[in-house]
C-alpha cells in the first residue's frame, strides 16, 4: 500500500500518491505541488505545514522526500542531475517529465553527498 | 520536529523518517548566523550601556563622585591667580563652623566657614568624637577598580598617589590653602618638600569663571571654595549637575573652587553649641579602602 499526501480544507481535498509526488515549491503562503503527470496543484498551505503532513502521513516513502532550504521539497527518486556550482537540480523520470530547479550551492552539495554516501 | 519552518536555504532535511539522520544534521542554535548576530548585538548593547553608565556616574558606586577617568573640559585654562588663603581667625572665639544658607540660580547652597581651625588631609574616617575636629569632608576620589586615590595626593609631605586625572588642585602649606587649576603646579613640589598636603579634584571655578566638566548626572555636591578671601565649603542642598553647581558658585562670587567627593560621601561638622551634623553613608564596601581620605579642619593645640 502506498503513502498518500492528503491536503484538505473546507472546499476541497487533494490526495497525491507518494510515488507521484515530484516536488513542492513554496510561494509565500501558497505552495505548488507538482506531480509525475505534470499537474500542478496550488494550495494555501505553507511549505512547513506540508512538510509536517508528509512527516505524519508518509510511512513507507517518507525517507525519499527531502526538504531543501526554505522553499523546496523534492522526491529524491526523481533526482537525475545535481550541479551545486550551477545551483541546479533536475527532477525527471527520464521519460515523461523534466523539471529544472534552482537551490543553494550548499544544500545541493549536501544532497549530492547524501546520494554518494547512501546509494 | 517541533518547527517545520526552522530551516535555512543552505540546509536539507529528510522529512519522512525521523529516525534516519538527515544528511545535514539539523543545525544547533549556536551554528546559526542569527545566534551569533544576537550575541554580537547583546555585547554591543552591553558595551554601550557600560559606556553610558560610566558617563553618567552609574558605575561609580559612591567611591568617587564622578568617573575617575574623565577630565575637565577646561584644558585650555590654567589658573592665573592662585591665592594663598589663610585660615579664618576670629580673636577670642572658639573654633567653630559658621553656617549660612543662600540660593543662587535656584540652587540652594549651604556655606560652611570654619573659624579658628587649620585644614589638613588625613587618611581614614576622622574621629567624630574628637572635638578638635570641627569639619571633615572626603577630599580626593578613590578609584572603583583598585581603591587607590585618583590623582596626585600628598599627605604631610609623603607622596601617596601620582597623576593628573583631574586638573583642579588644592595645596595646603602651613595651614594656608591654595586652590587652582593647572596640569603642573609648583605647589605640588612644595607640598612634598615642606610636609604639606596636596590633592586633585575637578575644578569648578577658576579665576571667578565657571569650569565646564564632562561628567553629567546629578548628585549632592560639595566644593572647597575661595570666597571673599576665606576658605569655605559650599554644599548643594539638592542634587545638582556639575554645570549648575559650578555656575551657582561662580555667581555666588567664588574666586576659585574645586570639587569634593559628593553624592553619598561622608562628612560632618561641629557647629556652635555642640551642634553636630553629619551626612553621607559610611557603610559601603568601598569605604574600607585604606586610601579613604578626608579634608579636616582641626583646632590648633
Can you tell me about this structure?
Chain A has 119 residues and is α+β, with helices and mostly antiparallel strands. Chain A is built from 2 helices and 10 strands. In chain A, the strands form 3 sheets. Chain A has a 5-stranded antiparallel beta sheet with strand order 5-4-3-7-6, covered by helices on one side. In chain A, a hairpin with a 4-residue loop joins β4 and β5 (40-43). The two termini of chain A are 24 Å apart. In chain B, 14% of the residues lie in helices and 33% in strands. Chain B has helices spanning 33-55, 186-193, 242-252; strands at residues 12-14, 96-104, 107-115, 118-123, 133-138, 153-155, 158-161, 168-173, 176-181, 197-201, 203-206, 209-210, 218-219, 222-227, 230-236, 240-241, 256-260, 267-270, 276-279, 293-298. In chain B, β14 (222-227) and β15 (230-236) form a beta hairpin. The termini of chain B are far apart. Residues 18-23 and 56-75 of chain B have low confidence and may be disordered. β6 of chain A pairs antiparallel with β1 (12-14) of chain B.
Low-pLDDT segments, ≥5 res of chain A: none
Instruction: Please tell me how large the radius of gyration of chain A is.
Output: 14 Å
**Which pair of chains has the greatest number of interface residues, and how are they split between the two chains?**
A-B, 34 and 19 residues
Q: Would you tell me which CATH topology of chain A applies?
A: OB fold (Dihydrolipoamide Acetyltransferase, E2P)
Task: Report the order of strands and helices of chain B.
Answer: EHEEEEEEEEHEEEEEEEHEEEE
Mean pLDDT of chain B: 82
Distance between the termini of chain B: 86 Å
**Count of β-strands of chain A:** 10
Shape type of chain B: elongated
Total of DSSP H or I helical runs spanning 4+ residues of chain B: 3
Strand order of the largest sheet of chain B: 2-3-15-14-17-11-12
From the helix content, strand content and strand pairing of chain A, which structural class follows? alpha+beta
Enumerate the spans of chain B where pLDDT stays under 50 for 5 or more consecutive residues: 18-23, 56-75
Number of domains of chain A: 1
Give the assembly state of these chains: heterodimer
How confident overall, as mean pLDDT of chain A? 91
Biggest sheet overview of chain A: 5 strands, antiparallel
Strand content of chain B: 25-35%
